[in-house]
Each structure stands twice: as structure tokens, then as C-alpha cells.
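Quick one - inputs below.
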Amino acid sequence: MLNKIKNIKAQVGETITWVIATIIILAILMFFIFGAVTLSSTKSLNEGFKVSFVSSEVFEKGDAFLKKSIFTYQKIEKKEDKEFVWKKLEKMENKSEFNLGLEETSKEIMKRYLAR
Amino acid sequence: MMKFYKKNKKGDKLISVYWFAILVIVATAIVIMVNSYYSSPYDVRHLEAEILAQKVADCVYFGGEFDILLLSVNGEFKDEFRDNFLERCKLDFDSHREFVLPQYYLEMDIYDSKNFKATNFSVVEGNLNLAPDCKLKVNEDKRVSKCFTKTFFAKGESDKIYGVRILTAVSKTEENVK
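Output:
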């Protein structure tokens, strides 16, 4: 009789354990499904990666427009015009219009294309 | 002892069924997760708009010089380049579907760098209906076209400096938004 009562108690305990485990498993699954649905709605592609000579941070993102402006800056001969363009570029950098740092990209371009 | 063994076997069977059910639930959940993640498309419109702007920038100004078909030796911008802009830049905005407007919009202004208001050369191409989307302050709605705008400096004849502003917009919500 005593054995039977003990057996029933053990079965009840085990059943509760499994029920709780099932709830936890379902909760985790729901969490991951919710995560997958949320992430799927924010999928977007980032820009490519390019290796830099100067630092690891430069050229990780491309900015063809900044590079064009720097090329122009390097080609200008008049000193006052050069200063004017540089000041404009600095202003644009302060407004976070570039993906890259102005100074670093300028050095990078000098090293890559113009110092030959 | 025999009775106890039989009872235990029943319990084992029950647990096997339970594990099988859990396995099915987990597998189904994984299928739902993978399906929901990969069924929604990547939104590449912003990148597409940027690539388009870069292509236009390279078309008009490359290697520190304006295209010879755009800027004459006298320093004048040629109207012929504007009239055949898409052809000159090898762009095709046609949707190739009947009754479907182009999914792209492009605006380019070349102005004197010292006077932003004096436009020397201007080009507008593509679907004009997309232009107002770029003027919206809050551009978070997925259905709104993605815009990209950049300005760069260019050197013309006799050291004259120009500012080139390019604005591009890409619609194509069907392909990029679920």
C-alpha cells in the first residue's frame, strides 16, 4: 500500500516536470519564431568591404562621391580654390554627409593613386 | 515484479510518444522560422539608388575630368548630352511591361560651386511621380520610394569648379517589400 502511494507521488512529480518542460520548450520556440519574423522584416544589404592601406577603418564603406571630390581637390592648381573646396568638404563632413573620414580618405587616395 | 515491469514499459511508450511529439513541434517551428525569414525579400532599393547615382556620377565625371561629350572646350555644357542622357550613360529606365511606369527617377544639377543657385546644367529623367517621395521628411514607410542624394565637386575647363548634385529614387516595392 505504502509502495503504491509512493509510486503515484513519483508519477505526479514526473508528469509536472514534463508539463513544465513542454511549456518551456514551446515558449522558447515561440520566442525564436517571433525573432525570425521580426528579423525577416528588417532585412537589408550593407555595402561591400574594401581593404585599406592606411587603416582598418577607412574604405570599409565606399564613398565614390567623396573620392571624386578629393580627386578634384588634388587637381586644382589655384591655392584659394583649393582652400575653398577643402573648407566646403569639411563642412559637408561636419554634416555627416560622407561615409568615410575626409582626412583619411585623402591620405588613402594620395597613397593609392597619386603618389606614383 | 512482473506487474511493475509491465507498468514501466507502458510509461516508456508514453514518453516515446511525447518525445516524438516534441520532435515534430520543434521541426515544424524550425520550418516556420526558416520559411518566414527567407520568404521575405531583401530591401536593396537604397543600394540600387546609390549605385544608380554612382553610375551617373561616373558617366559625367570620371578620372578628374568631365565627359568630352558633356563639356565643350569652351566650357559650355552641351544640350545634346541632356537630350540623349539615358543613351549616353547607358541607362534603361523602361519597365518593359505594358502600362507600368518606370521605377526610377533621376535628377542631376551642375552648378557653379561658388553660387549654389545658378544651375549651369540640369537633367531630369524617369518617373516624375517618385520625386515627391524624396521630399518627405519621414521616409520610414516601406511603400515609399527610396532616395539617395549626394553632391561632389568637379573641375571643368580653365580650373572652374562645379558642384554636381545627383538625386536618385527607386520605387520597385513589389520586388523589395513583402
